[in-house]
Amino acid sequence: MRIDVLTLFPELFRGFAETALIRIAREKGLLDVRFRDIRDHTRDKHRTVDDRPFGGGPGMVLKPGPVVSAVEATVAAGRFEDEAAAGMPAAPNSPEVKSPTPLMEPTPCIILLSPQGRRLDQPLLGELARERWLVVVCGHYEGFDERIIETLDPLELSIGDYVVSGGEVAAPVLIDGVVRLIPGVLGDPRSAEEESFTGDDLLDYPNYTRPREFRGLEVPEVLLSGDHRRVAAWRAEQARLRTRERRGDPADGAEADSKS
Ligand code: ADE
Predict the structure, then answer these.
(1) Residue 12 region, left (φ>0) first, then alpha (ψ -120 to 50), else beta?
(2) What is the pTM of this model?
(3) 3-state secondary structure string across 36-62
């Protein structure tokens, strides 16, 4: 998969791209991630990306010109690099990326991160993990000029019903959630299959490891029994209990507030 992240703060992503899961995915050649500075698409000497809202009010709004140009340039560069990978002359690559560019469909899924977007959940992560190319636009300040949305027609995504200071905080959540679902990224694919929100909408069961006793707290006997059927039944029951306790009984409509 290829992911281009458009941001006002590319430096914020340096550690993220070079650590843990994202680094592993890049090293395995399963992920090609690039961070692009929206300010490179401004035309004035102050590299202005925002301005006051028409109609008044607090905060600043992201101007349409730099954001739309940044997306269009990213898509054009991606297509060119795609052709380069197919035998055309090589395009200059951003220095931080060493993994090869896979052949991809020429049309990326354009995602705009904003608290007004569709709420991200595990099934949507699964759908996004099947895409070949994501272009993720990080907002900042009071939000995007609405004409950015009208022009790009992106998938607007929110990581939850709360506000963080910008898409740079939300993007790692999205990217990590997607990348760990790309086949081959996780050492043991069961890790992604058996966890919370996968398939049955249940929270995960409690886990234990050594030591068998910690400060007087014992590991449940069934987990030491070696009886796989009893273990599976216990885990299923614990997952149901935990989900009901923490998220309410779906029959009461308690789940309704976690769905968009
Ligand atoms: N930017 C600010 N808050 C956000 C949220 N909840 N999701 C996505 N982007 C955001």
Answers:
(1) alpha
(2) 0.86
(3) EEHHHHCCCCCCCCEECCCCCCCCCEE
Domains recognised in the chain with CATH numbers: 2-179 (3.40.1280.10), 200-259 (1.10.1270.20)
The partner residues of 153 in beta bridges, in order of sequence, read none
Residues 6+ apart with CB under 8 A from 152: 68, 71, 110, 112, 137
**CA 101 to CA 78: how far, in whole Å?**
9
Q: What pLDDT digit, counting tens, does each position of 135-146 carry?
A: 999 998 789 999
Q: What is the pLDDT of residues 74-118, one digit of tens each?
A: 999 988 876 666 654 433 444 444 455 555 557 999 999 999 999
Q: Whose CA is nearest to atom 10 of ligand 1?
A: 114
Taking the centre of ligand 1 as the mean of its atom positions, its distance from the CA of residue 139, in whole angstroms, is 8
From 7, 113, 119, give the residue whose CB has the most ligand 1 atoms within 8 Å, as the site to mutate: 113
CA of 5 to the centre of ligand 1 (A): 15
